[in-house]
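dumping this here before i forget
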Amino acid sequence: MTNVVHLNVPSRSHRREDRLSDLVACFAGLRRDVEDVFWLKENAELLNVLETGAMCAGLPPVTLEAILAPLSPVYAGLPKRLGFFPQYYRFLLSIGLDFEDLTGAGQVMEPLVAWTARGGLADAELSDLQRLEARRLMMRRGYDPLPGDAGLEDRLRAFVARSDGFALPNKKAAYELTHIVFYLSEYGRKDPNLAAETITSLEYVGLLAFLEQNVDLLAEVCVALRFAGAMPSPIWEGMVDRQTDEFHIAHGRQAVAQDDYHEYLVCNWHRAVQGGAPFAQATSGEGMSFHRDAAEAGPLREMSRCMMELDDARTGDWARMRPMVERSLSETGHHILTDAELSSDKFDAFFAGFARTGLTGAPK
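structure:
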């Protein structure tokens, strides 16, 4: 016989269920010790992107059970762990709720949520953002941990609608903005009822992230805009897509503790929310770390330095400031700035806030 039949059997690198299984096994047992608080953070983030990005949609229950099997002992042990580590209740509830909602099975979380709500753990939170996260988590099982705080969502909507404050580099405020939109929208499942000014706030943060070439923040902004019912700039999403394709994975003994796992998860989450296929890189059953080549720094810092050094000569008029700013930039920085201008029709208004000329009586 001279005919050879070639079977088109997908390799492990190309089967969605195998890549997801490898990722869960890696985060569950091959990166950090389960008692490490960073284990809680990483696994909560992984399950969150899997659940809110619908990355397991269409897989049979038996397949989902196999994918999440490495986390089954953690899920079963949540009552004991939550009782001893109530300070980590948001991580623990997030892991357990996503596990149940992904598998469609289990009865552990409803009594745990009820216990947590009755215990008043959310009352000890220092910020409205943390209180909103706690409410979002517990309402997934029908319990409001803050029944007396009817104004929580309104206070946060007022905060994110203050657009001028988001024209200034402030990573803490920027990530709070995206997460507030995530929680208010139930990760895209309902209308978050945002003011138009909040969409402007997201646009401003997107411009800052693009000018800095911060793909982690930019991916979150693009996802938040989609969850808010707005379309992100194709220029921004093009950058995130290119960076998503450029990740590489180190396996086994080549894997290291410090990596770009969060950017990897968020960029692939963005791809899933777009309707694409996430986690395209080949995975393995070994320990893994996730990396992307360091991108050339964007022009944000040079723009800030230029504006500060202009002192009283600076204005919020971008048409007047553009020649002076451009002279301070490298060729790459100039190209990034040009793309930033093209990416948003709010660039001139963004720059007026970025220039910081509106404060009177400020110290010299």
